[in-house]
Each structure stands twice: as C-alpha cells, then as structure tokens.
Amino acid sequence: MQYWQFFRLPGLHPLSRYQLAFAILMFLGSPAWMGLLLIGSAAVALAPTPSDFMRWDAGMAGLLLVLTMWFAPNIATVVDVLTRAKLRHLFGGGLRFSASFAINVVFAVLLAPIMWASHTLFLARLLRGRTLDWGPAGHGTITRWAWSLALRKFWPQTLLGLVPVLLLALAAPGALAYALLIAGGPLLSIPLAVATASPALGRLLIAVGLDRLPEETLPPPELRALSLPAIEMSQRAA
User: Fold this and answer.
1) Local structure of residue 54 (DSSP, 8 states)
2) Residue 230 sits in which domain range?
3) Are residues 72 and 180 in the same domain?
C-alpha cells in the first residue's frame, strides 16, 4: 500500500488526496469481498437454515443493486451501439455485438473475483513482509507451459474458490448458486488463464467476428501502417 506515504506530501490538492484514498479503498474492497465469501459461506453452513443468516428479499435487493451499479455503463453502451447503424457495423453487426456483450458479462463476472482474490493474497504477503517482483513473461513460456504456469500462479485463488463451494455443497446446497457469483471466478482461474492466453482462441474469435473493435473494422492510418496481424485477420474476416 505504497499510496499511504503520498498523504504526507505538502501542498497536495484535496482532490488528489481523495483520489489516493479512493485507490486505497479499491484495494481494501478486495479482502472485503473475499471476507464476504468465506465468512458468509461459513455462517450459512452453520445456520439452521439460510434464511436464519439473511433474509432472501434483502439479499436479493442488495445483489440486484450491485449488479445494476456494476453493469449500468455497459448497458448504456449496448443501447447506444444497437440504436446506431454505423456503430453496429463497426462492431461487426448487431448480432455479433450482442454476443460479444454476453461474453464480456460472463468474463467480467469471472475475472473480477479473481482480481479480488489476487489483491487479497497480495496484501496478505505485504503484511508478512514479502515483496512482489514484476518479471517479464515471454509469449513462448505462456503458450508452452500454460497449464503448469497457471497452476503455479493461481492455485491459491483456486483454493479460495473451492473451499466455500465444497462447504456449501455439503451444508447448504441452496446457497451455492449465490456463492458462485464470487467463488466461480477463483475456482476456474486456472483454465480461464490458459484459455485467455491461447492464441488459437484469439484467432477463432477474430475469424467469427466476436469481440471486434471499430478499429479492427475500419482501422485508422496509424494502425494500418503497423501491419498488425490481428488487424489483417479482422479485415479478411470482415
């Protein structure tokens, strides 16, 4: 949490202090989400019934509020793109764009909890006096040793997702679907890391026109001059 020391800087604008505080809170939110998953799962498992732990109507209202806040910008973008013919074309058409949005939603729901778990583990290592090295990772290493590398990097995240899932599967199966909204990402972090690092999957998405950007459909001169393989593949698939 290297941001703490910046609060002591003289003459720092109040808005800058707010941004620093907000950045710190973003990282502290990650262990809060993991605590909700682990402590909440244990509390549900130990309660006589899930309703003794939380009222279903209050819990569902909170869940819908969080999902609305989370995806409101994405939904606004979908409405904007689908109501404009030119934008629909630049994103590969209405059907492809809608399918891409669905993929993005699933990916976001899986990725965010993995990041929360990773932030939590990172903060725990800092409290134990350990540091983090940002070393280079070559493309050949990622593709050749994908499964072993992913297993070595993401087994703690997988464990954080597996423990509450097993606990609820045994003690309160009815609560399992709700827990998977947070636990599902960490539980699948290893295969997700391998899949998203796969050049073959990237080529497949380009070939079918999914997750296409306007710059791929109509590249600006700056991108055309670079002769990027992804841009050239998108042009052939268009």
Assistant:
1) S
2) 198-238
3) yes
